[in-house]
Design brief:
Helix content: 40-55%
Order of helices and strands: HHHHEEHEEHEEHEHEH
Number of domains: 3
Shape: globular
CATH superfamily of the largest domain: YebC, transcriptional regulation domain
Distance between the termini: 20 Å
CATH class of the largest domain: Alpha Beta
Strand order of the largest sheet: 3-1-2-8
Structural class: alpha+beta
Number of helices: 9
Radius of gyration: 18 Å
Number of strands: 8
Length: 248
Amino acid sequence: MSGHNKWSTIKRKKGAIDAKRSKAFSRIIKEMTVAVKEGGPDADSNPRLRLAIANAKGVNMPKENITRAISKASDKDSAALSEVTYEGYAPGGVALFIEATTDNIQRTVSNVRSIFNKYNGSLGTNGSLSFIFDRKGIFSVPQGNLVEDDFIMEIIDAGAEDVVLEDGFFTITTAMEDFGSMIKKLEQMKIEPESSELQRIPKTTVKLDKEAAQKLLRIIDIFEEDDDVTNVFHNLELTDELMSEMEK
């Protein structure tokens, strides 16, 4: 199983923990807010909002929370949000690509820089890690009654680069430019993914010993605990031993 599929599996398992759920809700509410500001509150005519709502359902966000978030985002006086990214290196030479959504860029960059400095990392310039990461569409689909071979063949015919079934979930990988068409394909098949998102997948990975890897994962957790941070991508090699530790 490729590294990003391992990470998708772990993120799904970690996402089931209550402590992570409020963060997932916050991230999706911000995504809905940006989507409404860009394309309006009608999900039928706003693909980005439709995707955010689907992801909200995937983490069991209550319907009233979704409705409230869309209504609040529709208010012309609601806070404007900006999407920003930061790139840098953690100890051990592991690359970190951080995505954030914020109403105060100065606060966000200050917090991100502070974490890099505190844990002996280095914040780089935007674009400095473009050679390390590819942007891919990643979908997590519950197997349910789907027949493995038939589903995989149909999804690959629809443009998927890779499909893996593990622990009752299909992980589908697409090129970034095929992300929208895969969303439409799954809608046509009346399949609702647990999650659909653009991720940054490393082309090369860095292997650390167990202790250093655990420290690195703690740093990632600290970044993710920041209210403005929505995603942290990395190129740490996820060994089977490390996977086992993360699942505990």
